[in-house]
Amino acid sequence: MAHPLSHWEDGVEALPRETIVDVLEGRLREDILAGRHPAGSYLPPERTLADGYGVTRTTLKHAFGRLTQAGLLETRHGVGTRVRDYLRLGGADLLPMLVRHSPDWIGEVFEVRRHIGTLIAGRAAARATERQRAGLRALLTAVGEAADADAVQLADVEVHRALARATGNRVYVLLTNTLFNAYLPVRAVLRAPFMDAQVARGRLEPVVEAVAAGDEAAARHAAEHYLAVTERIMLENLA
User: Fold this and answer.
1) Where are the beta strands (DSSP E) in the chain?
2) Smallest Cα–Cα separation from 236: which of 196, 202, 190, 187?
C-alpha cells in the first residue's frame, strides 16, 4: 500500500514541496519522539527510508536538515544518520517541540516555572531599580486593563519578563523566555487563570508590591503562591 505521503510526490495533488517537507518532518519527529527510531540508533539507508515514507530522497534530506538543526538527528558522513540522545545532549530549546508531542511535559515545565519564578521574585526584590519598580506597577495595571483572556495572558507574561530583567541577571531572562516558549504550543488551553482581567491582576499584585517594597521574603512567598495557584488552574483546565 502506498504511504499517505506518496500522493503528494506523484503529482496527484499539487502542493508546494515545502508542504511535503513539513509533513515528513512531522512524521519523522513523531516517530523519533515515540521511540520508533530509538535514541542512538541509525536510521535505515536514505533510499529505503524514502521509499518507506513514499517521498523522494531530496524531500527526505530537507526533513533531515530540519531535524538535525532541531537537535534530534546527527549525520556522520560515510556512516549514516543517527537519532541523537536528546535527553542526554539536548537543550531547553527542544521543549516547545516536546510539549507539542506530549502534554505530559507541561507538568515538568510548570514545576521548573514554580521554582525559577520564586527565585526570580526574590532576586528582583533585592536588585530592582526605582525605574524597574515603577515599570512593574505599570505592567500590572496593563494586566487589569487587558481586553480579553488572550491579552491578559500576554500582559501577565510581560510582568514576569520584567521581573526577570529586574534581577540584573540575563540568564534568568533567557530562562524565563525558554519557559514561556515551552508552553506556547498549548497556550490557548491555558487561559483559565486569565479570563477575568481584574482577578488576574489581583493574583499578581502581591508579587509586584513585594518586589517594589524590596521585601525578598515576601516576594518569594507571594510568587510561590501565585505560581502554584495559576498552575493548578491551568492544569485542571488542560485535563
Assistant:
1) 73-76, 80-83
2) 190
Q: Quickly list DSSP for 152-173.
A: HHHHHHHHHHHHHHHTT-HHHH
Closest CA to 212 of 104, 148, 140, 147: 140
The answer to whether the CB of 76 falls within 8 A of the CB of 34 is: no
Poorest-confidence range of 92-101, 109-118, 133-142, 175-184?
Answer: 92-101
Q: At residue 93, what is the residue type? A: D
Confidence at residue 76, expressed as pLDDT on a 0 to 100 scale: 82
Helices 104-127 and 170-183: crossing angle, nearest 10°? 150
DSSP state of 196: S
Q: Which residues contact 8 (CB under 8 A, 6 or more apart)?
A: 15, 19, 20, 23, 55
Separation CA 119–CA 223 (nearest Å): 9
Query: Which residues 6+ apart lie within 8 Å of 150 measured at CB?
Result: 191, 194
Q: Which residue has the cell 526605582?
A: 130
pTM: 0.76
Rg (CA), the chain: 22
Tell me how far apart the alpha carbons of residues 232 and 196 are, in angstroms, rounded to a whole number: 16
> Cα(168)–Cα(67) distance, rounded to whole angstroms?
35
